[in-house]
Amino acid sequence: MTQTKSPMARIIIYIVLALFTIYNVLPFGWTIMNSVKLPKDANARTPRFVFSPTGENYADLWLNASPEDFAPYGLALILIIFALIVIGFSAPRIPAPNSLVYIGCIFAGVIVAIGLPRVVNTAEFYDYLINSVIVTLGTLCVSLSIGALAGYGLARFRHVVSVYILVIALAFRSLPSLALVLPFYYLGQLSGLYDTHILLIFCLVAVNQPFTIWMLRSFFMEIPREIEEAAMIDGAGRLRSFISVIVPIMWPGIITTGLFTLLLAYNDFLLARILTQINWTLPIGIAQFTGGEDPGHVTLAAAASVSTTLPILVVIIFFQKYLIRGLASGAVKG
Amino acid sequence: MNKGTFTFFVGPSVFIMLALMTLPLLASIVLGLHFITFRNLDEPLWVGLRNYEEVLADPEFWDSLEFTILFIIAAVPLRIVLGLLFALLLDQVTRFRGLFIAAALVPFVMTPVVGTLIFRDMFDRGGPYWYWMQQLFDYRMFMNSTTVPILIVFHSIWTATPFAMIVLFAGLQTLPQESLEAARVDGASWLRQLWHIAIPHLRSLFVFIALISIMDSYRVFDSVFVLTQQNPIYDAETIMYYNFQVAMSFGRLGKANAMSVLTVLGIFVVLIPFLVITYRDQVEES
Lengths: 334, 286
Description:
- The structure holds two protein chains of two kinds.
- By secondary structure, chain A is mainly α.
- Helices cover about 75% and strands about 0% of the residues of chain A.
- Chain A is built from 16 helices and no strands.
- The radius of gyration of chain A is 24 Å and the shape is globular.
- Chain B has helices at about 5-30, 50-55, 60-90, 95-110, 110-125, 130-135, 145-170, 175-185, 190-220, 220-225, 240-250, 255-285; strands at about 35, 45.
- Chain B has twelve helices and two strands, in the order H-E-E-H-H-H-H-H-H-H-H-H-H-H.
- The model of chain B has no long low-confidence stretch (mean pLDDT about 85).
- Chain B is an all-alpha fold.
- In chain B, helix 3 (about 60-90) crosses helix 7 (about 145-170) and helix 4 packs across helix 7 (about 145-170).
- The chains are: A mainly alpha, B mainly alpha.
């Protein structure tokens, strides 16, 4: 619509938007501050914006050992992560197949992640992180692979059956997940799968699948049929042409859907709370800081909050474009 | 694409949804007819409809339903109105637009448990909002059965307004340019453009956001869990939260399953119009 020319109005608009922005990010900023405060600063009667920072809360959160003992390992860890990132990004220049380099990097990362607690005395929070990573990546892989196949099939098969599947999926999407997870809990207890990653992953996949196929389908609909028809004339089958022709040009759509899946799996609290007992994920680990009068809780909770949220915020800011596109496109079609 | 290939592509996903959603729902109906606690998990006791009778006669169930409905009535319109307001403001500016949107994404993508925890800290004693309210309005906030429900609503607006804003902002970018041009030539004011062009164009988005918001608010759990600190004195239990408590705190799995069957029936009241609209759209499209 017409943008106003009045300078007064423009100033007011900018001020309101700036206040809105502050309102949106201030709580997180305040938590970052709290996470590097000493308990006496964090529990002060008046909020302190100036204080001498400390890294103690993070050390308490992640380590059972003293920070001095950890320092050399920490340095090594940072160097290894840095090296893996550099190798990953320069993969095209390394004289080996790209996929081999990526797999090697991931493999090395897994080794480091598993090996670290054997070298350093890490605290429970590290285990929660590992659990969260396993559950999130597991959910992403299963959900996206079967979701992409289904989304493609639903986009190409113009038949009333597709409509039925989509509408039923939509009904599933709106169900309270508690209605699903209680039977999962019961069956998990009976079968011994309770408190395993696999049960949580499959529960998350199930909850997430309706949304995934809707979103991926809407992206596949944008791809003209001629593209895979050309490949099929050249003799490739449906699946071949799907994998080698469609998927490569579908990356933006898959990333967008993947981001929403990532958020759902990583942020989930209710399912993990019910389906785990010891193998907690990060949100459950944080929730233990919600009660209690211990003055150390505030700073520890802040360190835990920042540790949990920062990775997800970095990923989201990095892929912001895709997320916004997903929000916009899902909406415009709905 | 023929039927065989279609089955091959869609099969795994449909199988997962059938096996992991339909079966649990059916199991939930069966479990709801039994008396089950943590002690007799492997030998449930058949009690027929007694769980349902108990749920329907449970005053706490009705309290939590009432609170959930009040929550929906308070939160959903505010989200849409504020979302529209900020979408319109965003539409007015060009500079820093990306920054404003990126900042708005922060509460939206943040892990809900964490988001609630830090939101509460702002209003807790010694937090900035608490301090500013005290300095500016001489109001000392306590966590009690009035403020905690308000905080739950505030928090939900904090996290959901960005969603409404981005969706509506995207909608504003697809306004029919010819009508806007015509309105401009006729000298229609911004307000008239809004009323006669933008709002009608966005109508389907309002419905979409409202339905999503109602369904999400109906399921609100994480923020209640954190803000009430599992303490009943705040009198702010939503239906999901009470259902969770019946299952995990009181250990009444059978009763909890009966209750979740009832909540599923409840959501269908809202859902059916949504499904009918979608069905019509999709049939038209294909």
